[in-house]
Amino acid sequence: MRLAVRTFAILRELSVDRDTLELPDGATLADAWRAFVDRYPALAPHGEYVRGALNGAYAPWDRELQDGDEVGWLPPVSGGSGDLPAGRIGLADGPIDVAGLEASVAGVEHGALVTFVGRARRTSDDGREVVQLEYEAFGEMAERVLAEIAADAAERCPGSVTAVVHRTGVVPLGEAAVAIVSAAPHRGEAYEANRFVIEAIKERLPIWKRERFVDGSEWKRTGA
What we know:
Blueprint (H helix, E strand, L loop, with lengths): L1 E6 L1 H6 L3 E5 L6 H11 L11 E4 L2 E2 L11 E5 L14 E4 L5 H8 L6 E8 L10 E8 L1 H18 L4 E7 L1 E3 L4 E9 L2 H18 L2 E7 L2 E5 L4
Parallel strand pairs: 1-5, 6-9
Antiparallel strand pairs: 1-2, 3-4, 3-5, 7-11, 8-10, 8-12, 9-11, 12-13
Helix pairs in contact: 4-5
């Protein structure tokens, strides 16, 4: 069978953006990873941390593959429902309209509105000066995961609704990289839903941040 392969962030830099694999019937996601590493040995040290995706969704390593499947190799990310209106949940390749997000969820039944904005900052966690931030996402999968996270927040905090947009591409210093707006009848549910979403993004969203420093650049784990 023939598989399409995609890689992201540091894994892409150590191999290729897209490739194909020919594997026997009955092969698993783990078999595909081993075959890919045989082709690109520089990936081997990262195997312990890589997560596999199948047709745009996370998948276990023992999942059996089918002809025509698309597999993806994802480095670690930082350690509502899908039919919500367009623009309320998703990715943006330009400035995020925070006021628009607030308006999209705030209703007369909502006594509380909590907004979190993660902005591109000049100094990294280790004190180095940042000159530019850039985010790379597995787009189709990221949109789906964001919708799932918003739905999980609504289930966890009844009566709440959340809008969330993450920016991709280059984010100038001082501009928003991610915006999360949660509305609920009371402040407790709004705070809880908002915090749940940002923590889930750090754990689950297939998006990676590159911080460019004065003395070079490196891939960093996602986190605003």
